[in-house]
C-alpha cells in the first residue's frame, strides 16, 4: 500500500502513470507492452468464480481476459499494457463490498467489470462512486441500480454516475417474458422468487405484466438460496392448476425445482430469466428441464458473426465457465473501459492524468461503438441502449432460441 501511495504522488508530480501489473486470479493478460514508459493499467473483475453461479461468473472473467489479450495484441491503446485482476464474490454482497474496497485500493485499477448479481452490485456501488472508479456490469438487470428505488412510478433518479451496464433491465425482460408466455397461450402462472434483489424484482415485474396481458396468478411463494427440497412448494404448484411456473432467481434452485416438479407428475414448463439460462441448469435438471423457458439479454452470441473470433479463442483456450451467458457482454464492457482509457490518454498528451479514474468515468458515458455482442452506448442513467432480448427453450437437451426482439408493450 505504501508503494502505491508513492506511485500516486509520482503521478501528481509528473502527470504520467507508471505502474506494474498486479496479480490476478485469472493471471495477467497475454501480449507484451509496446510502451516505452512501461505503463500497465489493470481492469478489475468481480464475479462468483467459485460456488454458486460460478459457471456464469467464470464466463465473465474470461470474457474480460480475451478482451484484454486482444487489446494488447492489437495495441488498441498505444503505450499501455492492460492486465486483469479477478476477485471472487461467491455471489455474496458482503464479499462483493470487500472486493470493491480492494479494487479501489489498487491504484492501477481504472475500471471494473462486474458483478454478476444485482444484490452484490448494490453493496458495491457506493464504494466505487466514492473513489470515482467506473464499473460496468455485463449482467445486472434490476432497474433500481440505475434508475433509483421509485423507477416504477416514473420517478427515475440516477444514484451513481460511476455505474453502467451492458445488459438491459428487468423492466423489459420481465415484461418480454410475460408477453411471450401470453402469446403461446399460457393463462395461469404460479410465481416464485428467491427473495434476492434480482429474483424478487424480476418475478414482480413478470407477475404485474402477465396480469396486464390478461393472465391470472395461481399463487406466489418464495424459496431461500441454497434450498434443495421443494416438495412442499411442488404440492402447492400442482394443486393451483397453473399452466406455467415462473421462477425469479438463479439456476441452482430452479434446476432442482423443475426436476422435482416434473418427477411429481406436473409437466408444466418452468420459465425464468437470464439467471437460469445456463448449461448447468440443463445438466442438473436433466430430462426435467425439457420444454422449460428462459429469457436472456441480447441476441444469442453463437449467431453473431461479430462474436465468432471471440468464441473460437474461448474454446481454443479451453477456458472454464459459460461464455454464452455474458461472455460477449463482458468482452464489450472491458472494451468500453479500454477505449475510454485511450480517450483519456489522447486528451492529455498521451499520458494518464492524476485524476484518470474520474476522466475514464466521463469517457465511458460517451462511448459509442459496435461491440461483439451488439452496439455499445449508454443513456443518461448508465443503461445500455441495446434493448434486445431473446426467449430460449430447452429442446433436445439444449437451449434453443425461439424468439428475439424488443418489448413492444
From TrEMBL:
Residues 1-21 form the signal peptide. InterPro entries: Leu-bd, Peripla_BP_I. The keyword Signal applies. The keyword Signal applies. It comes from the Bacteria. Keywords: Signal. Residues 40-397 form the Leucine-binding protein domain. Belongs to the leucine-binding protein family. This is Branched-chain amino acid transport system substrate-binding protein.
